[in-house]
Amino acid sequence: MTASAPAAAREDRPHVAWTRKDLLGLRELTREELLALLDTAKGFAEISTRSIRKVPTLRGRVVVNLFFEPSTRTRLSFSLAAQRLSADVLDFGKEGSSTSKGETLVDTARNIEAMGVDLFVVRHAAPGAAAVLARHLQASVINAGDGSHEHPTQALLDCYTIRERLGRLEGLHVAIVGDIGHSRVARSNIWALQKLGAKVTVVGPPTLVPAAFTQLGVSVCHDLDAVLPEVDVLNMLRIQRERGGGGLNFPSVEEYSRLFGLTQRRLERARKDVVIMHPGPLNRGVEIAPEVADGPNSVILQQVSAGLAVRMAALFLCSLARSKSEAAEEGA
Ligand code: CP
């Protein structure tokens, strides 16, 4: 690999050795590994400010986006991140592929790997799908969302955005509001934020916020108005009607919005500098009012921008670890 890491990636944390060829979730990562990803992303963010927004870091490498679920942000930002690193990028969509003829996920991926692909970016409705592929492939696998399990790069870009806005994560109180039970974004955020020193409260109706979440170390609250004055960050999630059989799990969208939607009026109960986040896609007028989504406390578009740097870091670190491991095996 023509590995040329940006300055921050080389110098900030020289003691951290990233050794994972795959990024499957944040549950298994140490605090140091999380910081290595965030600091490497900080270095890569500078590339997007240059007149020529491209570096040769992954020249000659091939990245495939293997997406079995819809995506706008994750898919495009992984594509752009790979292109900024000079990798070749292939796009696989379920529609029009031979999976409709009965080919398994593993067979599909192994055939794509046989074309010389080095990195797989995988989104799938089944929890654990990326981990299964990582076991069957020599190539690196990055989980771009597996069912309700994890969405590691989303939580990393959320942490990155908070750190940029507030200068730290340690000691902050973050509320994640909405359909927590079905949310891979909530789970990955819970793992990352707590390891990085933040306190997390999950908020929503009991039918969407199972009490069992306390076993992950977070507080559970069913009253958004009660928690609003106490938090530094509000991460608003949408209702995931594509999971859990498509039911609402509460009486009506109107009632949900009245009790848990972030309106301008409700925002007046929060701290003046509270940071408003949303992973997208937004359901304007349901979990968040348009004037709040577009208002001065919102960092929703900064989250999307951060995703590019975070995904460049993930592609770079996983590719480098795989190259080092292969070189070591050849030398042994
Ligand atoms: N936040 C997120 O994962 O968005 P997409 O589904 O558009 O990728």
Structure summary, number of beta strands: 9
What bound compounds does this protein have?
Answer: phosphoric acid mono(formamide)ester
Compute the separation of the termini in Å. 20 Å
Helix segment tally: 12
> How does the major sheet shape up?
5 strands, parallel
The portion of residues assigned to helices is 25-40%
| Spatial strand arrangement across the major sheet | 7-6-5-8-9
Average residue-wise pLDDT: 93
How would you characterize the overall build of this protein?
The chain has 332 residues and is of the alpha/beta class. Helix content is 39%, strand content 14%. The chain contains twelve helices and nine strands. The protein has helices spanning 7-11, 31-45, 73-84, 105-113, 129-136, 152-166, 184-195, 224-227, 253-260, 264-267, 290-293, 300-331; strands at 62-67, 88-93, 119-124, 140-146, 173-177, 199-203, 219-221, 233-236, 275-277. The protein has a five-stranded parallel β-sheet. Helix 5 (129-136) links the parallel strand 3 (119-124) and strand 4 (140-146). Helix 2 (31-45) packs across helix 12 (300-331). The longest helix is centred in the C-terminal third of the chain and has 32 residues, at 300-331. 45% of the residues are buried. Phosphoric acid mono(formamide)ester is lined by residues 71-75, 145, 154, 279-281. The site of phosphoric acid mono(formamide)ester (CP) has 10 residues, from helix 3.
